[in-house]
TrEMBL record:
The TonB-dependent receptor plug domain, residue ranges: 74-181
Protein's recorded name: TonB-dependent receptor family protein
Superkingdom assignment: Bacteria
Key words, A-Z: Cell outer membrane, Membrane, Receptor, Signal, TonB box, Transmembrane, Transmembrane beta strand, Transport
Domain annotation TonB-dependent receptor-like beta-barrel: ranges: 206-671
Pfam families: Plug, TonB_dep_Rec_b-barrel
Family membership noted in the UniProt record: Belongs to the TonB-dependent receptor family.
Membrane topology according to the record: Multi-pass membrane protein
Signal peptide (residue range): 1-30
Chief subcellular location: membrane
Cellular localization per UniProt: Cell outer membrane
Length: 712
C-alpha cells in the first residue's frame, strides 16, 4: 500500500499555482500514488526564474515540493500552492509579497511587516494580530494558544513553499475557522534550491537586506540554517524597521521508515509605528507620522524563540506524524500605553494519514489530535515617551485547547469522491486582572469555555484528466482571543465574555487547464452568527480595537485566477508571453442588524484585481509588468458614511539568472507615485467624529528595489 503525504487521493490533483507575479505557466507532472490517474500540473516560472529542474525527492518529515503541491490540490475545496521560486527574484519582504497573487487572500500593508490578513472576511476590520486564520510553519502551529498570531517570524527568504487552505478546507491540519490556514514551509537540505545561498538586496527608503542559507546531507543526518537581516527607514516618518530572523532544522533518519526533525527559530523585530492619519493627510501628506506616535515614541519590539519537532513513521498502511512545539514570545509595545507581555505556548499533535480499500473502492483517511495551551503575563504602564511609567495593569491570560478531527475521501466512482469530516473541540480562556482600573469589579476575572463540533461534507468530480469540479459545506467556529476578550479603553482593561463566532460556508468551484488556458475559480457564501466585529475606539491614539458580536452577517464572494498563454516561441527560442488576471470579490454585510441594518462591513474593498503580463526567456530573463487595481476603496466605518477612494498601481519586475548560479533582479513599484489608502482602522460611525477620524494608513509611494543572489 503506497504511503501518502496527507492522503493524496486516487486522482492526484493538478498544481494550479496561479500565484506568481508574472503568471507564466509551464506544464509539469504532479506526483501521484502508484496507479493513479494524474492531472497534468501547472506551475509558475514567474519572475523568480524557472523552477529548479533537479528538484529533490524530499524526506519523510518534509516531502518534496511536488509532493507538497499534490497534497494541497488533493483537497476537496478551494486551496492554493505557492512555490518560493515564484517570488525569490523580487523584493519579497512581507506576507503580502508572498500571497498577493492568491485569489481570495486579502493582505494589506500598514508599515514595515505589519499586515492585515483576511481570507473570506476572517478577522475583518482587525488591524493587529491575526484572528480566524491559523498560521503554521512546516505544518506546526505558529499561533499562540488563544488563537492570535503575528507575521514577524515569517521570513519570505527562508521559505520553500506556501500552502493556503481557505475556510474549512484546512481541516487537514485540524483548523476549522472561517478563514482557514496558511502553512509556510521552510526548506530542508533535501528541498533547498542550492546547498549554499548568499543574497543582498536593497533600494528605496534606505533599505538593505542580507540573507544566507547553508545546508548539508551527511548519511542519515541533514541540516539547514538560514538568516536574514533587514534595515529600512520606511516610507513614512517614524517607520524605521530592524529585523533579525534565523531558522534552522536538523533531520535524522532513525531507521528505515522512521525520521525525526527539529525546527529552531529566533525572530527579533524592532518596528517604529507612524500611526494613522486623517483621510486628507493620508492622501496629501502621506509621509508624515501621527504626532501622537512621535510623542509617545510608539513602537513594537517583539522577540520570539521557537522550537518544534516532527517525528514521522512510515507504517504498513499510511504514515504517522507526531508534532510537538514550544514558543516563547516577549512583546514591548508602547502605544497609548506601554503594553509589556511575556508568554509561552506549547503543544503536541499526533496525526495519521493513509489509504486503503473498502469493498474494492479507494478510501483516503486523515485522523488527528491536538492539545496545546499557553500562559501570558500581560502588563501595562503609562507611556512616557516610549518608556514605562506608572503601572496600570497586571493580568494573567491562560488558554488551553483540546481537539480531535477526521477527514475521509471515499472514491465511489473512478472520477468522483465523497468527502466527509468533523472536528470536536474544547477551548478554555481564563483571565485574571490583578491590578489596574477595570470599569467594574466583576470584570477583573473571567473564565469561559467554548466547545462544539464542526462537520464537513463535499464532492469532487474530475470529468477530464485536466479539469476538476468541487463543492462542499463546512461548519466553522472562531473562538475569541484575548485581544477580543480583554478590551482596553481609557478607563482600563475589562474582560468581555464574547460568544464564539459560528458559520456555515457553502462553496463551489473548478480548476484546470485546456490547452493554453488555466483557471482556478471558487464561489462561496458564509452565513455567520455572532460574528466577531472590530472597531477602533480612537485610532489617533492607537488604542487596540474593541470587539462585539454581530447577531447575523453574510460573507460571500468570488475567488478567481485565470491565465492565458498569449504566445510561445516569439524569438524561436522557447520564450513565452502570458497574461494572468486575479480577481477577489468581497460582499460582506450585516443582516438586519439593530444598529447597522444591512450595511457593508467596513475595512475591505468590494473588488481587488491584479493583472500581470509576463514574459520569460529560456536564457533566464523574465519581465513582468503588473497593475493592482481597487476600483472602489473600503468603507472606513460600519455606518457606511465615509469611504476611501479607489486606486491603481503600476509595477514592473525583471530578473536575470546566469548559468553560474548568480541572479540579478529589479522590483519597481507604484511607478506613477499614486496616493492611495492601504489600510483602515475601522470606526463605528465616522460622521460622529469631529473633523473626521484619524483612521487611515497611506500606501507606499514610488519605490525601486534590486538585488543579487549567488547559489552554489
Amino acid at each position: 500500500m503506497p504511503s501518502l503525504h496527507r492522503a493524496v487521493p486516487r486522482a492526484a490533483l493538478s498544481s494550479l499555482l496561479l500565484a506568481s507575479s508574472s503568471g507564466l505557466l509551464t506544464p509539469a507532472l504532479a506526483q501521484a500514488p502508484e496507479g493513479a490517474t494524474t492531472l497534468s500540473e501547472i506551475s509558475v516560472a514567474g519572475s523568480g526564474g524557472a523552477p529548479n529542474p533537479a528538484e529533490r525527492a524530499g524526506s519523510l518529515t518534509v516531502p518534496s515540493v511536488a509532493a507538497q503541491r499534490a497534497a494541497v490540490n488533493a483537497t476537496v475545496g478551494s486551496v492554493a500552492f505557492v512555490d518560493a521560486a515564484s517570488f525569490r527574484n523580487r523584493y519579497a519582504n512581507t506576507v503580502r509579497d508572498v500571497l498577493k497573487d492568491v485569489p481570495g487572500v486579502f493582505v494589506q500593508e500598514r508599515y514595515g511587516q505589519e499586515m492585515r490578513l483576511s481570507v473570506r472576511g476572517s478577522g475583518i476590520a482587525r488591524g493587529f494580530h491575526v484572528r480566524g486564520i491559523e498560521l503554521l510553519q512546516d505544518g506546526i502551529p505558529l499561533n499562540l494558544a488563544d488563537g492570535s498570531g503575528d507575521f514577524y517570524q515569517i521570513d519570505p527568504l527562508s521559505l520553500r513553499s506556501v500552502e493556503v487552505y481557505k475556510g474549512g478546507n484546512a481541516l487537514t491540519f485540524g483548523a476549522t475557522t472561517l478563514g482557514g490556514a496558511v502553512n509556510f514551509v521552510t526548506p530542508t537540505a533535501y528541498t533547498a534550491f542550492a546547498p549554499n545561498i548568499l543574497r543582498i538586496d536593497g533600494g528605496s527608503f534606505n533599505t538593505i537586506r542580507e540573507h544566507f542559507q547553508f545546508s548539508r546531507i551527511a548519511g542519515p543526518a541533514d541540516f539547514l540554517i538560514s538568516g536574514t537581516l533587514t534595515n529600512s527607514d520606511g516610507y513614512r516618518d517614524h517607520e524605521t524597521q530592524r529585523t533579525r530572523n534565523f531558522n534552522a532544522n536538523l533531520g535524522y533518519r532513525l531507521a528505515p521508515g522512521v525520521e525525526t526533525r527539529f525546527f529552531v527559530g529566533f525572530y527579533d523585530t524592532d518596528q517604529k509605528l507612524p500611526g494613522t492619519l486623517s483621510l486628507f493627510d493620508a492622501l496629501n501628506n502621506p509621509r508624515i507620522a501621527n504626532p501622537t506616535a512621535i510623542s509617545g515614541n510608539q513602537s513594537r519590539k517583539v522577540t520570539t524563540e521557537r522550537i518544534a519537532n516532527r517525528t514521522s513513521f512510515e507504517l504498513d498502511v499510511g504514515r504517522l506524524d507526531i508534532d510537538s512545539w514550544a514558543i516563547h514570545k516577549n512583546l514591548y509595545h508602547p502605544i497609548f500605553q506601554v503594553i509589556d507581555q511575556d508568554g509561552w505556548t506549547y503543544g503536541i499533535s499526533p496525526h495519521w494519514a493513509g489509504s486503503f480499500d473498502i469493498a474494492g473502492y479507494r478510501n483516503d483517511l486523515i485522523l488527528g489530535l491536538r492539545a496545546f495551551a499557553g500562559v501570558n503575563q500581560a502588563l501595562q504602564f503609562a507611556n512616557v515617551s516610549g518608556l514605562r511609567g506608572a503601572q496600570t495593569l497586571n493580568a494573567l491570560q491562560s488558554a488551553s485547547n483540546y481537539e480531535a478531527y477526521a477527514e475521509n475521501r471515499f472514491w465511489f466512482l473512478p472520477d468522483v469522491a465523497l468527502m466527509t469530516g468533523a472536528k470536536l473541540f474544547s477551548s478554555n480562556r481564563t483571565y485574571s486582572n490583578k491590578g489596574g482600573l477595570p470599569a467594574s469589579p466583576t470584570a477583573r476575572f473571567g473564565n469561559v469555555t467554548y466547545d462544539g463540533i464542526n462537520p464537513k461534507l463535499g464532492l469532487l468530480w474530475q470529468p477530464l484528466p485536466d479539469i476538476q469540479v468541487f463543492g462542499d459545506i463546512t461548519r466553522s467556529r472562531d473562538v475569541p482571543d484575548f485581544s477580543d476578550l480583554a478590551q482596553t479603553n481609557m478607563l482600563g482593561t475589562t474582560f468581555v465574555p464574547l460568544e464564539a463566532q459560528r458559520a456555515w460556508t457553502y462553496e463551489a468551484g473548478t480548476r484546470g487547464r485546456i490547452d493554453r488556458l488555466a483557471w482556478d475559480v471558487t464561489l462561496y457564501r458564509a452565513e455567520i452568527r455572532d460574528a466577531l466585529i472590530n472597531f477602533t475606539i480612537n485610532p489617533g491614539l492607537n488604542i487596540p480595537a474593541a470587539t462585539f458580536n454581530a447577531p447575523r452577517t453574510r460573507h460571500q464572494g468570488v475567488e478567481a485566477a485565470v491565465t492565458l498563454d498569449l504566445a510561445q516561441d516569439l524569438t524561436g527560442l522557447g520564450d513565452r508571453l502570458s497574461l494572468t488576471q486575479i480577481w477577489t470579490h468581497n460582499d460582506f454585510r450585516f443582516v438586519g442588524d439593530p444598529v447597522f441594518g444591512n450595511n457593508r462591513i467596513a475595512g475591505v474593498p468590494v473588488d481587488v484585481l491584479r493583472t500581470v503580463l509576463g514574459y520569460a526567456h529560456p536564457s533566464g530573463f523574465t519581465l513582468a509588468p503588473s497593475v493592482d487595481w481597487v476600483p472602489e476603496g473600503a468603507f472606513a466605518d460600519h455606518a457606511n458614511t465615509l469611504k476611501a477612494p479607489g486606486y491603481a498601481l503600476f509595477n514592473v519586475q525583471a530578473s536575470l539568472d546566469f548559468a553560474n548560479g548568480v541572479s540579478l533582479f529589479v522590483d519597481a513599484r507604484n511607478l506613477t507615485d499614486a496616493r492611495y489608502i492601504s489600510d483602515i482602522a475601522v470606526v463605528t460611525n465616522a460622521a460622529t467624529v469631529p473633523g473626521g477620524p484619524l483612521a487611515f494608513y497611506p500606501g507606499n509611494g514610488r519605490s525601486v528595489f534590486g538585488g543579487v543572489r549567488a547559489s552554489f
